[in-house]
Amino acid sequence: MCGIIGLIGNNEEDVVDQIILGLEKLEYRGYDSSGIAVLDKDCKIKRLRAVGKLHSLKAKLAVDRISGSIGIGHNRWATHGTPTEKNAHPIISKNVAVVHNGIVENYKELKFDLKKDGCIFDSDTDTEVIASLLQRGINNGASPREAFRKMLQTIEGSYAIAVMFDLLPDTIMIAKQRSPLVIGIGANHCVGSDITSIASFCSEVVYLEDGENAEITKDGVLFFNRNFNQIEPSRHRISIEVIDSGKGKYQHYMQKEIMEQPSALRRTMLYNKIDKSILNDISRILILACGTSYHAGMVAKYWFEKFLKIPTTVEIASEYRYRSPVIEPNTLVIAITQSGETIDTIEAVEYVKIHSNSKVLAISNVKNSAISRIADFVFYTEAGAEIGVASTKAFTAQLAILASIAFMHYDFLIQELQSFPTYCEEVLNLYGAMNDLAHKLCDAKSAIYIGRGSLYPIALEGALKLKEISYIHAEGFAAGEMKHGPIALIDDNVPVICLCPDNELFDKTHSNVQVALARGKNVIVFTDFGKSEILSDEITKIILPKIHVEFVPILYVIPLQMLAYSIALLRNTDVDKPRNLAKSVTVE
Ligand code: F6R
To answer: Is the CB of 582 inside a 6 Å radius of any atom of ligand 1?
Structure first.
């Protein structure tokens, strides 16, 4: 959440366009406001900020151009202070401009103290205490470096910070604590919240560790540990795959990412051969994840208990460390996170590491992400960059890895899994049908998704997709739970979307379908050829290919993604950047 970038031009060239390019890549991290600050040729800080998505800042720049050969930029996802221009970053205090991703947890005490010293605050942000601390240091005669180091020793919380001083016109100072930050070295020396934002300006990157800080100039980068001793961290060459290839022929990233699922699944299975030894001496599995990744974990529980016979618990990572969980010996912990940066998941894993000897396996879509650096081993989903805020291809790729683990002793299932992407291709032809259905559902105020067994998490995921991009209220339920309360919600205006494949639970789910139909006329059933003919004519039927029952959850989520997308299009929402959300959730 929040994206930051900083860049120093080679040969004094203007960096504004490059910073804007970087901010475009970081927009998925927040789009409540954006801003840019540069040092102009007279070493004066010049700043432009705009509320809303990046195009507002670009429009302002077109009429009120600023330029400079060193600059910082920011996309905001508001935490402290409403999304207004005065709260947009960069935050300035006379000689200093700051961009920040994270939360200064002791900002209230610091603000109180700074105000007593006569500091005046212009914004409601926690970040302003960083700028004020730096300015107070300068006013008291400290050098920028001394002021920066003192500030780092004073603030608590999470941060990725980039700071420019007008008194030190060739340097950007940066620091990291629990928020992602990558430094780029090459044609330009630069810093960004992720590698894609800076990949076109540099050839090598350094991933800062927590507590580390650095000084970037056009001649090089100096790295320091938390005690400010100089260090030489390892550098990584940038690979082609991190460069986002754009939307191509598609209107939205989400649409492109839905369509990419067959190839994402093929690549994921090709590059992840599961070594059976990962389960040696394991008697329990604990899965930690949030949101869509949590739903992948819920599906895995069904598979793991059925095929591995290992008791499995799935926990919402944001809840996990705030109770007193018992971690039994010989537990394998699986952390699932597309971004690899979700703070709730990272902190839950840190909790496990402190309180047990459990090994942690991470499943992530982003190479060298924070989770990969704290896990004992990592499987990467090879889905490629997922830019749409609503997760699609990363989810099915996570399921492919989890299925490969679950079926490790069943060669015939592993073989079937290899041919599964062909069925996904077939399902992707349902766009027309989903579009027709979307016309029927797009004015609903509320929708219900139901499923049983491993289709229950898919009902939750279908509902999540719909609510996050169309803003229609939607809930997923275990089909059998409806009669224990939620059934009261059903009337003719509430569509009930039932996931009812031809499996051993068909008859039970079919009864739930009938019960829904007796109370509302808008019942839609996703099923396969086997049983579709026995469903009442009043039901809208979506027929999916008949596949092995174990793979049904992976297949059935795809039309639900397409349905949510089609409904969002009709409702004219910003599909790739839905309101209030950000893709990488780095605050608790
Ligand atoms: C929903 C969605 C979110 C994420 C959640 C966890 O479409 O994308 O619910 O799944 O924020 O993110 P990761 O997987 O990056 O940890």
So the answer is: no
Mutate to test the pocket of ligand 1, among 193, 293, 389 (most ligand atoms within 8 A of CB): 293
CA–CA dist 548, 372 (Å, integer): 33
Task: For residue 140, tell me if it sits in a domain.
Answer: yes
DSSP designation for 219: T
365 in ligand 1 pocket by Cβ < 6 Å? no
Distance between CA atoms of residues 349 and 369, nearest Å: 14
Q: Which of 2, 190, 202, 500 is catalytic?
A: 2
Please tell me if the CB atom of residue 347 comes closer than 6 angstroms to any atom of ligand 1: no
583 in catalytic set:
yes
- pLDDT of 535 > 90? The answer is no
Q: Give the phi and the psi of residue 29 in degrees, each rounded to 5.
A: -85, -10
What does pTM read for this prediction? 0.89
Residue nearest to atom 7 of ligand 1 (CA): 390
Q: Are residues 373 and 440 in the same domain?
A: no
CATH of the domain at 12: 3.60.20.10
Dist. CA 578 → ligand 1 center (Å): 13
Number of domains in the chain: 3
- Residue where one domain finishes, among candidates 192, 213, 239: 239
> Which range of residues forms the domain containing residue 347?
252-428
Same domain, 57 and 200: yes
The per-residue pLDDT for 302 is 98
In the reported structure, the alpha carbon of residue 143 is separated from the centroid of ligand 1 by a whole-number distance in angstroms of: 42
Q: Which residue in 105, 111, 215 sits closest to 171, CA to CA?
A: 215
- DSSP characters for 3-55? EEEEEE-GGG---HHHHHHHHHHHGGG--SEEEEEEE-TTS-EEEEEEESSHH
Dist CA 382 CA 380 (whole Å): 6
Same domain, 181 and 285: no
Residues 129-141 pLDDT 10s? 999 999 999 999 9
Closest ligand 1 atom to 345 CA: 16
Q: Is 388 in the pocket of ligand 1 (CB under 6 A)?
A: no
Q: Which amino acid is at 90?
A: P
C-beta 586 within 6 A of ligand 1: no
Ligand 1 near 396 CB (within 6 A) = no
Cα–chain center distance at 194:
12
**404 & 261 share domain:** yes
Residues in the chain, total:
588
Average pLDDT, the chain: 95
Q: Is residue 245, in this structure, part of any structural domain at all?
A: no
Instruction: Count CB atoms within 10 A of the CB of residue 492.
Output: 9
Question: Do 207 and 280 fall within a single domain?
Answer: no
Tokens representing 244 are 């986002």
N- to C-terminal Cα separation, the chain: 10
Is-catalytic flag, 276?
no
Please list the residues that pair with 224 across neighbouring strands: 213, 230
372-386 pLDDT, tens per residue?
989 999 999 999 989
* Bridge partner residues of 92 (DSSP): 97
How far, in Å, from the CA of 395 to the mean position of ligand 1?
9
Q: Is the peptide bond before 486 cis (omega within 30 degrees of 0)?
A: no
Among 404, 428, 452, give the residue marking a domain's end.
Answer: 428
Alpha carbon distance 298, 65 (integer Å): 51
